[in-house]
Amino acid sequence: MGCFLSPRSKDCFHFRSLTQIHTFMKLRYLIYLLLILGLGYLIYHRISTNKALTGGNRPGGSGMGGNQPALVVDGVIVRTADFDNQLDLTGSIEANEAVALKSEVSGLVTGIYFKEGAHVNKGDLLVRINDREINAQLQDIITKENLAATNENRAKQLLDRGAISQAEYDAALADLKSLSAQVQLIRAQLAKTSILAPFSGQIGLRSISVGEYLTPTTSIANLLSINPVKINFSVPEKYASQVRVNAPVTFHTDGASRAFTGTVFAVEPGIDQQTRTLQIKALAPNPSRELLPGAFAKVKLSLTTIQNAMLIPTEAVIPVLNGKMVYISKEGKAQQVAVEAGTRTADQIVITSGLNPGDTVLTTGAMALKPGAPVKVNIVDKK
To answer: With a threshold of 0.70, does the pTM exceed it?
Structure first.
């Protein structure tokens, strides 16, 4: 659209501006129309897709209520059997007897009479400390004791003849008894210079040498009795009433491939308030000395036997907000059932309520299952 030059050029400029504005408005309306059409197509496509997905809700559809294919899962049939109630616990191996050998007196070591790591018998001489000074004191006091005994005997004869008073004889007798007590005291000190094995066992590595000055704070070596050994472990408070003396235990250690057996011989009379557990000790034979004190032990403790217990695999139980539940198959469909559980082992759990013998419990597919979903169950025989 042109505009001829004229004195009114301002009107021509105004005319061209209006034309451009009109063209811009038409273009904007066209863009709006295209956006509306695109949004409408998206909405239509989404609705169509949803209808296709939910078409199974109508007769002939393929949804949950239509011809949904059955989910193939594993399952077990609930049966009753006697269950040996066992607890899986952790504990430690301890020596039957253990002591760190030390001297009661100070002095130079004059002799070491044991071989490191060897077996020693009760009463064997292990270490001797210099005793020359104590022996000298003993000889001196024995001489004085003999003299006092002679004086006491002479005073008694004089008393019988009335030559001395009773008080003089009593003084002689008291002097004799005092010296006799000193002899016993020095003999006791002398005995402490010989360190003997307090019980039979295996002695460890020594930490002293001949000629070393030994004090009561110096450790000589460790002496352990490791046949039998003790197994120290604890059980939760709720099982305290089921623990009994002479109950059998089975345990493993990391240092041995085979299982060991033992017997409970002592139970702490009270519950530990810090851990809320009951401390227990069992005794196990160790003739080959495979079990070493301080080793970690995985313990199985036998408690009571539950008659007609219902056992299912642990993987079948699903924790929920208010407890536990399982899926069972009923008329070819999955059904949720709330259950109460008892003792759990590594692969099984005792069900105390919620199931009946003969129910088919589903053990796989828990994440994909929904109540009412069709299932095809492969029965697995877990004995």
So the answer is: no
